[in-house]
Amino acid sequence: MLGIAFGTRPEFVKLKPIMDSMDGKKPFRIIFTGQHEHLVKEFPAHYDVVRIKIKNGYNRLDSIVSSVMNLDCYDGITHLMVQGDTTSAFAMALTAYHRKIKIIHLEAGLRTYDMDNPYPEEANRQLISRITDIHFCPTQLSHDNLEVEMVGGDKYIVGNTVLDNIVDVPVTYSNEVLVTMHRRENHDIIPQWFDSIERSSLINKNLKFVFVSHPNPNVQKHLGRLKNVEVIDPMDHHEFVKKLASCKFVITDSGGLQEESSFLRKYSIVCRKVTERKSGVGRWSKLCLSPENLQQLVKEIDTKGVPPTTWFCPYGDGKSSQKIYNILNSVL
Fold this sequence. Notes:
Blueprint: E1 2-6, H1 9-22, E2 28-32, E3 48-51, H2 60-68, E4 79-83, H3 87-98, E5 102-106, H4 121-130, E6 134-137, H5 140-149, E7 154-157, E8 176-179, H6 190-203, E9 208-212, H7 217-220, E10 230-232, H8 237-246, E11 249-252, H9 256-263, E12 267-270, E13 285-287, H10 294-302, H11 320-331
Helix pairs in contact: 1-11, 2-3, 3-4
């Protein structure tokens, strides 16, 4: 039987198409690590769900690892799937490795090769790769990273499952600039980012800047700096996608949003020193290395207009979950 481990909304959004494709056809058990507890309400009642309680200690990352390890919820599980690069994904993969359970890594092979950017995600995904048996890679580049690293296991290029959720979403263009920011490596300079976003909103009066807030306290405590920017509460994924599909372009430090925005034909400004989603850089996305660079990039993207119809999303075609199901059907 397949075990599927996750605990955050981004993980759930990317795993949901796979669970939907398997529902009623192949048995699976969810091992829910519970960082975003409200997700439980979105699981169908017939799902087999084991819930893990994260016990907070002195260090949050240590707490996640210690809470996940040494549990007894794996009877009948032959393969365990983890998604992405969270610390809980690494801990679950290591737990499976200790039990000689085959590990399946969804969104495998993403790399910056900078252990501080993103921290701790870059280390997590490299560590997961070393013990993975089946790698589901979103792009040729991510597949090639694993080949260069000479990691073991079977490697498949399947695209990114997040796109399966938005295949039929209608796309329009307004004057809204959709803004998100939450990554740990930006926490120390969020005041500078927010000040630069605020200045950009004042300079570009033809644009309406909308910031989707994040519950992290390191974000929340600085929201008062955004006076000319509309700040809205976090939305569920369905509502957020509608907002994304109707905006003009995006300012973000999110990884998944780089994929979704290109699929919905929107440019993005990525507020990071480096990104693991390199396939879209230069066409769909522009790296903004520091807050001082943001205003110039906003001006540049604003003048680009609508992306050419000949450009395609480099992260998949919206059919990844079916490709993965077909592979799993032969493996399990």
